[in-house]
Amino acid sequence: MQAYSVDAKALGRMIGSANRELLENLLNELAGELDYLDDAAKAWGELVAARQALTKMILEPNYLNDIPDLSDDAAIYIYVFKMLCDRYGTSLDSGAYTMSSDWLGTVEEELGAVGVCCEPNEYFAGGADLPLPRAFPFPIAGCIEFDAMAEMREEMERALSADVDSDVLETVAELSEWAYECLKERRDLVWFFF
Protein backbone atom coordinates (compact mmCIF):
# COMPACT_ATOMS: atom_id res chain seq x y z
CA MET A 1 0.00 0.00 0.00
CA GLN A 2 1.05 3.56 -0.62
CA ALA A 3 -0.57 6.47 1.16
CA TYR A 4 -0.62 10.25 0.79
CA SER A 5 -1.72 13.21 2.82
CA VAL A 6 -3.52 15.26 0.18
CA ASP A 7 -6.55 17.50 -0.29
CA ALA A 8 -8.70 14.94 -2.13
CA LYS A 9 -11.48 17.45 -2.75
CA ALA A 10 -9.06 19.83 -4.49
CA LEU A 11 -7.80 16.98 -6.68
CA GLY A 12 -11.40 16.02 -7.36
CA ARG A 13 -12.11 19.55 -8.58
CA MET A 14 -9.24 19.24 -11.09
CA ILE A 15 -10.79 16.11 -12.57
CA GLY A 16 -13.28 17.08 -15.24
CA SER A 17 -12.49 20.78 -14.83
CA ALA A 18 -11.83 21.27 -18.57
CA ASN A 19 -8.94 23.50 -17.50
CA ARG A 20 -6.58 23.41 -20.49
CA GLU A 21 -3.93 25.53 -18.76
CA LEU A 22 -3.83 23.07 -15.85
CA LEU A 23 -3.54 20.18 -18.31
CA GLU A 24 -0.66 21.81 -20.21
CA ASN A 25 1.18 22.52 -16.96
CA LEU A 26 0.72 18.95 -15.77
CA LEU A 27 1.79 17.47 -19.11
CA ASN A 28 5.00 19.53 -18.92
CA GLU A 29 5.70 19.03 -15.20
CA LEU A 30 4.98 15.29 -15.27
CA ALA A 31 6.57 14.49 -18.65
CA GLY A 32 9.20 12.14 -17.22
CA GLU A 33 6.76 10.35 -14.92
CA LEU A 34 4.24 9.95 -17.76
CA ASP A 35 6.95 8.41 -19.98
CA TYR A 36 7.92 6.03 -17.18
CA LEU A 37 4.29 5.05 -16.61
CA ASP A 38 3.78 4.42 -20.33
CA ASP A 39 6.78 2.08 -20.40
CA ALA A 40 5.47 0.17 -17.37
CA ALA A 41 1.92 0.10 -18.73
CA LYS A 42 3.07 -1.47 -21.99
CA ALA A 43 4.43 -4.40 -19.98
CA TRP A 44 0.98 -5.15 -18.53
CA GLY A 45 -0.76 -4.62 -21.89
CA GLU A 46 -2.39 -1.26 -21.19
CA LEU A 47 -4.13 0.16 -24.25
CA VAL A 48 -4.49 3.75 -23.02
CA ALA A 49 -1.40 5.99 -22.85
CA ALA A 50 -0.77 7.93 -19.63
CA ARG A 51 -0.98 11.31 -21.41
CA GLN A 52 -4.27 10.29 -22.97
CA ALA A 53 -5.62 9.25 -19.57
CA LEU A 54 -4.51 12.52 -17.93
CA THR A 55 -6.03 14.55 -20.78
CA LYS A 56 -9.32 12.70 -20.54
CA MET A 57 -9.38 13.05 -16.74
CA ILE A 58 -8.82 16.81 -16.80
CA LEU A 59 -10.77 17.85 -19.89
CA GLU A 60 -13.81 15.55 -19.83
CA PRO A 61 -16.26 16.09 -16.95
CA ASN A 62 -17.87 12.68 -17.54
CA TYR A 63 -14.75 10.71 -18.43
CA LEU A 64 -15.81 7.83 -16.18
CA ASN A 65 -18.76 7.08 -18.46
CA ASP A 66 -16.37 5.77 -21.14
CA ILE A 67 -14.52 3.30 -18.91
CA PRO A 68 -16.08 -0.10 -18.15
CA ASP A 69 -16.48 -0.72 -14.41
CA LEU A 70 -14.08 -3.24 -12.88
CA SER A 71 -11.93 -3.38 -16.00
CA ASP A 72 -8.25 -3.74 -16.78
CA ASP A 73 -8.52 -0.46 -18.71
CA ALA A 74 -9.09 1.44 -15.47
CA ALA A 75 -5.60 0.86 -14.03
CA ILE A 76 -3.87 3.61 -16.02
CA TYR A 77 -6.29 6.24 -14.64
CA ILE A 78 -5.57 5.16 -11.07
CA TYR A 79 -1.82 5.35 -11.66
CA VAL A 80 -2.21 8.83 -13.20
CA PHE A 81 -4.23 9.91 -10.15
CA LYS A 82 -1.41 8.58 -7.97
CA MET A 83 0.93 10.88 -9.91
CA LEU A 84 -1.31 13.79 -8.99
CA CYS A 85 -1.07 12.72 -5.34
CA ASP A 86 2.72 12.64 -5.71
CA ARG A 87 2.61 16.14 -7.19
CA TYR A 88 0.14 17.79 -4.81
CA GLY A 89 0.37 15.70 -1.66
CA THR A 90 2.86 14.32 0.84
CA SER A 91 3.88 10.67 0.71
CA LEU A 92 3.26 8.93 4.03
CA ASP A 93 5.14 5.77 3.16
CA SER A 94 7.99 4.38 5.17
CA GLY A 95 9.31 2.51 2.16
CA ALA A 96 7.89 -0.88 3.16
CA TYR A 97 4.88 -1.49 0.90
CA THR A 98 3.83 -4.75 2.53
CA MET A 99 0.54 -3.55 4.02
CA SER A 100 -2.51 -5.09 2.38
CA SER A 101 -6.17 -5.48 3.24
CA ASP A 102 -5.41 -9.09 4.23
CA TRP A 103 -2.67 -7.89 6.57
CA LEU A 104 -4.98 -5.27 8.07
CA GLY A 105 -7.45 -8.10 8.74
CA THR A 106 -4.69 -9.99 10.54
CA VAL A 107 -3.92 -6.88 12.60
CA GLU A 108 -7.60 -6.67 13.61
CA GLU A 109 -7.68 -10.37 14.55
CA GLU A 110 -4.47 -10.20 16.60
CA LEU A 111 -5.67 -7.15 18.51
CA GLY A 112 -9.16 -8.61 19.00
CA ALA A 113 -7.63 -11.79 20.44
CA VAL A 114 -6.19 -9.73 23.32
CA GLY A 115 -9.39 -7.70 23.80
CA VAL A 116 -8.43 -4.56 21.88
CA CYS A 117 -11.03 -3.22 19.46
CA CYS A 118 -9.10 -1.74 16.55
CA GLU A 119 -10.50 -2.01 13.04
CA PRO A 120 -8.25 -0.32 10.48
CA ASN A 121 -10.02 -2.08 7.58
CA GLU A 122 -13.19 -0.16 8.45
CA TYR A 123 -11.46 3.13 7.67
CA PHE A 124 -10.11 1.88 4.36
CA ALA A 125 -13.35 0.18 3.29
CA GLY A 126 -15.66 3.01 4.32
CA GLY A 127 -13.83 6.00 2.91
CA ALA A 128 -14.93 8.66 0.48
CA ASP A 129 -15.28 8.06 -3.24
CA LEU A 130 -12.57 9.30 -5.57
CA PRO A 131 -13.23 10.40 -9.18
CA LEU A 132 -11.73 7.15 -10.46
CA PRO A 133 -12.90 4.01 -12.22
CA ARG A 134 -12.64 0.70 -10.40
CA ALA A 135 -9.93 -1.56 -11.77
CA PHE A 136 -9.91 -5.34 -11.71
CA PRO A 137 -8.15 -6.85 -9.94
CA PHE A 138 -5.71 -4.05 -9.02
CA PRO A 139 -4.84 -1.27 -8.32
CA ILE A 140 -7.40 -0.14 -5.78
CA ALA A 141 -7.58 3.44 -4.55
CA GLY A 142 -9.55 5.08 -1.78
CA CYS A 143 -9.76 8.00 0.56
CA ILE A 144 -10.16 8.40 4.29
CA GLU A 145 -11.50 11.91 4.79
CA PHE A 146 -9.90 14.40 7.14
CA ASP A 147 -12.98 14.29 9.39
CA ALA A 148 -12.18 10.66 10.30
CA MET A 149 -8.50 11.25 11.11
CA ALA A 150 -8.88 12.15 14.81
CA GLU A 151 -10.99 9.05 15.47
CA MET A 152 -8.56 6.85 13.52
CA ARG A 153 -5.59 8.29 15.41
CA GLU A 154 -7.26 7.72 18.80
CA GLU A 155 -8.14 4.14 17.91
CA MET A 156 -4.59 3.38 16.76
CA GLU A 157 -3.03 5.06 19.80
CA ARG A 158 -5.16 2.96 22.17
CA ALA A 159 -4.02 -0.19 20.38
CA LEU A 160 -0.31 0.60 20.73
CA SER A 161 -0.21 -0.76 24.28
CA ALA A 162 -1.54 -4.20 23.27
CA ASP A 163 0.55 -7.28 23.96
CA VAL A 164 0.79 -8.53 20.36
CA ASP A 165 3.38 -9.31 17.72
CA SER A 166 5.80 -6.48 16.95
CA ASP A 167 4.77 -6.46 13.26
CA VAL A 168 1.18 -5.78 14.30
CA LEU A 169 2.27 -2.92 16.54
CA GLU A 170 4.48 -1.54 13.78
CA THR A 171 1.47 -1.41 11.45
CA VAL A 172 -0.68 0.26 14.11
CA ALA A 173 2.07 2.81 14.79
CA GLU A 174 2.39 3.55 11.07
CA LEU A 175 -1.37 4.05 10.67
CA SER A 176 -1.37 6.32 13.72
CA GLU A 177 1.47 8.35 12.22
CA TRP A 178 -0.40 8.65 8.92
CA ALA A 179 -3.46 9.98 10.75
CA TYR A 180 -1.26 12.40 12.72
CA GLU A 181 0.32 13.77 9.53
CA CYS A 182 -3.09 14.22 7.90
CA LEU A 183 -4.39 16.02 11.01
CA LYS A 184 -1.31 18.24 11.10
CA GLU A 185 -1.68 19.15 7.41
CA ARG A 186 -5.52 19.23 7.57
CA ARG A 187 -5.73 16.84 4.64
CA ASP A 188 -7.32 13.56 3.65
CA LEU A 189 -5.51 10.23 3.42
CA VAL A 190 -5.53 8.81 -0.11
CA TRP A 191 -4.32 5.22 -0.40
CA PHE A 192 -3.44 2.76 -3.13
CA PHE A 193 -3.28 -1.06 -2.95
CA PHE A 194 -1.30 -2.67 -5.76
Beta-strand percentage range: 5-15%
Query: What percentage of residues falls in helices of 4 or more residues?
Result: 40-55%
Quickly count the helices: 9
How would you describe the shape?
A: elongated
Average predicted local confidence, pLDDT: 90
Comma- or semicolon-separated keywords:
194 residues; alpha+beta; 4-stranded antiparallel sheet; 9 helices; 4 strands; 54% helix
Secondary structure elements and their pairing?
Layout: E1 2-6, H1 8-14, H2 20-29, H3 31-43, H4 50-59, H5 75-88, E2 90-91, H6 101-113, H7 120-125, E3 140-144, H8 149-159, H9 166-185, E4 188-193
Antiparallel strand pairs: 1-2, 1-4, 3-4
Polypeptide structure, described:
With 194 residues, this protein is of the alpha+beta class. Helices cover 54% and strands 9% of the residues. The protein starts with a strand and ends with a strand. The mean pLDDT is 90.
Short account of what is shown:
By secondary structure, the protein is an alpha+beta fold. It is 54% helix and 9% strand.
